[in-house]
Amino acid sequence: MFPLELLKQATETDQQIAQYIVNHQEAVAFMRVRELAEKTHVSPATIVRFTKKMGFASFPELRVTLKQHLAQRGQENQRAEEITYLETTSFPSNFNQKIEQLIDILDQASFIHCLGSGASGIMAQYAQQRFSSLGYRSISSLAAFLPYVSTKQEQKGDTIDEVCLLFSISGETPDIVHVANYLKNTAIYTVSITNKEANRLAALCDVSLSYDAPSNRHSHSVDMSSQLSAVYIIETLAKKLYLKNYPLSSE
Asked: Which residues form the HTH rpiR-type domain (predicted)?
């Protein structure tokens, strides 16, 4: 925040002001000169002189720097929380093998359906956007009954050219399970993306991509469980599809 060389040369009063600012950054970022002077028991003129000694043109400039520092620290803390969350998330031992197999199927698909409801519906929309940005024909929906999903009525075993990704944290969402049950005897290749591997949705789909992460459901209608694991799966699929089509692209 303040250059160490300048602090070493600062007076005891200036060092006390600097210490107060460092210990109360959130508050000082919105203070006026007079307010900080009262908190540090010095005159407003002393605050102004301290500001200039520390290399700032004015006190408002110091406040702007403080706000930028706080914003950067907030982003770093968020990234640290995300990394910690993913470190506590475990994927099955055959996760990478399933991903590689699915990449080949997705790459050859004429159409990719992405379905989900609630928070998982947002993940379905995000996946659709990622696939579409790579040039794959894709659509997402939150609807329980999907006319376009039934466009491929051939029996299981026929050539696969459509894929349906079904998102559900619990794997027990009635609407999504209903769709998976409807599709199980068609040529549409179904993929479940769920927390935990043992659930009805995973049992109905051709392949299941699961993760083992802490659940945070407060009630039937309030589920605060993190979707970072689902985002990780989507990003992994998108990245591998991109590298498959542009193998010489640099990171």
From this structure: 1-73
**pTM of the predicted model as reported, rounded to 2 decimal places:** 0.61
CA quadruple 192, 174, 136, 251: dihedral, nearest 10 = -50
pLDDT tens figures, 128-170: 999 999 999 998 876 555 554 555 555 555 566 899 999 998 8
Structural domains present in the chain: 4-87 (1.10.10.10), 95-245 (3.40.50.10490)
Q: How many CB atoms lie within 10 A of CB 243?
A: 13
CA 72/CA 45 separation, integer angstroms: 30
- Encode pLDDT of 162-183 as tens digits: 999 999 988 999 989 999 998 8
Q: What is the pLDDT of residue 144?
A: 54
Tokens describing residue 133: 């940005």
Q: What angle do CA 157, 97, 225 make, to 5 degrees?
A: 100
Whether the Cβ atoms of residue 242 and residue 134 lie closer than 8 Å to each other = yes
The dihedrals phi and psi of 10, each to the nearest 5 degrees, come to -75, 155
Show the DSSP H helices in 54-118 as ranges.
Answer: 59-87, 95-108
Q: Assign 248 to helix, strand or coil.
A: coil
Helix (H/G/I), strand (E/B), else coil: 159: coil
Tokens of 213: 């992460």
Long-range contacts of 5-8 (CB under 8 A, 24+ apart): 6/53, 6/54, 6/55
**Assign residue 40 a region: left if phi > 0, alpha if psi is -120 to 50, beta otherwise?**
alpha
Of 236, 242, 244, which is closest to residue 89 (Cα–Cα)?
A: 236
Q: What pLDDT score does 88 carry? A: 47
Q: For the CA atoms of 130, 136, 141, 146, what is the dihedral angle to 10 degrees? A: -160
Give the number of other Cβ atoms within 10 Å of residue 15's Cβ: 14
